[in-house]
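Design a sequence for this backbone.
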């Protein structure tokens, strides 16, 4: 059973987890059913990475990366509508470009730069402040949301899955989207392991489960089942849901 509801006004949900654990799909699904605003922080880091690559900045030049991030962050424009996911750097729509292999290969290095994280965390918090000010719920997903960006979120979820399952799902997702990825599942698993190691070992805001986060293992669950599990956690916490819950087939 999946439940839907009129917006739980002002509720803040943080979903964290390793790469390809299903965070974006689950967050968008929850946002659709509860009429939440949706904020994809990974897309923000990818947009900055795209800009860094466009500028020809070396990934070893952390000062130049930080300067680029500081310039790009205020220019980021994204859709909070989970049915119309997009992101722009100023007037340039980079929604498709940020999913290309070149960006994927570089995003961990760019994200590890403290100045990048400082610039984007400020933008991410602004998005939540605006949603709450408007009386709307918001779901934000990423790798350091519950630990750094939104430590006081109403509910924190740590979403994970078996590495082999994550790799298979990512390859299938890339193929379905027509992205130019020649990776086998084994190669994808190795790439995800590399990204996991980089994200969890960085000095600034490493990826880890928040102490008060609820762990959800998505290995053997369908997307609908994971969404249902997260919404059930919201209702179990008796967060301020406005309107009666109802079943949705």
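Sequence:
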């Amino acid at each position: 059973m999946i439940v839907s509801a009129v917006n739980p006004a002002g509720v803040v949900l943080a979903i964290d987890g390793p790469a390809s654990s299903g965070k974006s799909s689950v967050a968008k699904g929850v946002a659709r059913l509860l009429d939440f605003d949706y904020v994809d922080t990974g897309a923000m880091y990818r947009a900055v990475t795209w800009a860094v690559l466009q500028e020809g900045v070396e990934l070893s030049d952390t000062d130049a990366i930080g300067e680029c991030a500081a310039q790009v962050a205020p220019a980021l424009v994204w859709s909070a509508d989970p049915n119309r996911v997009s992101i722009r750097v100023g007037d340039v729509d980079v929604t498709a470009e940020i999913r290309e292999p070149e960006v994927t290969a570089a995003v961990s290095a760019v994200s590890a730069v403290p100045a990048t994280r400082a610039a984007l965390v400020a933008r991410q918090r602004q998005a939540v402040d605006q949603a709450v000010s408007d009386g709307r719920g918001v779901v934000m997903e990423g790798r350091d949301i519950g630990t750094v960006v939104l430590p006081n979120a109403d509910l924190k979820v740590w979403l994970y899955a078996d590495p082999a399952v994550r790799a298979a799902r990512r390859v299938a997702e890339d193929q379905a989207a027509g992205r130019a990825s020649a990776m086998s599942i084994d190669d994808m698993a190795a790439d995800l392991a590399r990204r996991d190691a980089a994200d969890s070992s960085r000095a600034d805001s490493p990826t880890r489960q928040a102490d008060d986060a609820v762990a959800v293992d998505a290995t053997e669950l369908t997307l609908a089942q994971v969404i249902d599990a997260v919404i059930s956690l919201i209702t179990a916490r008796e967060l301020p849901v406005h309107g009666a819950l109802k079943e949705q087939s």
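The radius of gyration is 17 Å.
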